[in-house]
Amino acid sequence: MSRRRKSPRKGRRTSAKRRRRGSGRRVWLKWLLSLTVLGVLLLGGYTVFLAKEVRVKFEGKRWAVPARLYARPLDLYVGAPLSTTQLVHELEALGYRRVVHPKAVAQWSRNRDRFLVRTRAFAFWDGDAPARFLDLRIRDGRLEALADADSGRDLDLVRLEPPAIGSIYPAHREDRVLVRREDLPERLVQALLAVEDRHFFTHRGIDPRGIARALWANVRAGRAVQGGSTLTQQLVKNFFLTPERSLWRKFNEALMALIVERRYDKDEILEAYANEIFLGQDGGRAIHGFGLAARFYFNRPLAELELPDLALLVGLVRGASYYNPRRHPERAKARRDRVLDAMAEQGSVGDDAAAGAKAKPLGVTPRGRSSTDSNPAFVELVRRQLRRDYREEDLTSEGLRIFTTLDPWVQHQAGQALDEGLAELARAGRKGADRLQGAGVVAGTQGGEVHALVGGRSADVAGFNRALDARRPIGSLVKPAVYLAALARPQAYTLLTPLQDRAVTLRTRDGQVWQPQNYDREEHGEVPLHAALARSYNLATVRLGMAVGLDAVVETLHAMGVEQEVQAFPSLLLGALSLSPLEVAQVYQTLASGGYRAPLRAIREVSTADGVLVQRYPLSVRRVLQEAPVFLLTRNLVEVTRTGTGRGLARYLDTKAGYAGKTGTTNDLRDSWFAGYGRDEVAVVWLGRDDNGPTGLTGSSGALPIWGRLMAALGAAHLETAAPDGVARVWVNPATGRLADEGCAGAVAFPFIGGSAPRERDPCSGGAGGAEPGFFERLWR
Amino acid sequence: MRELRMKRFLAGCALAGLAACASPPPRQGPPAPVVQGGSAAAPSPARGAEEPEVAAYVPPARPQTARPQPARAVEVLLQRAEDQRRAGDLGAAAGSLERALRIEPRNPVLWNRLAEVRAQQHRHAMAEELAAKSNSLAGLEERALKRRNWEIIAVARRAQGRSAEAREAERKASQFD
Question: What is the Cα–Cα distance from A474 to A741, expressed in whole angstroms?
Answer without folding.
Answer: 40
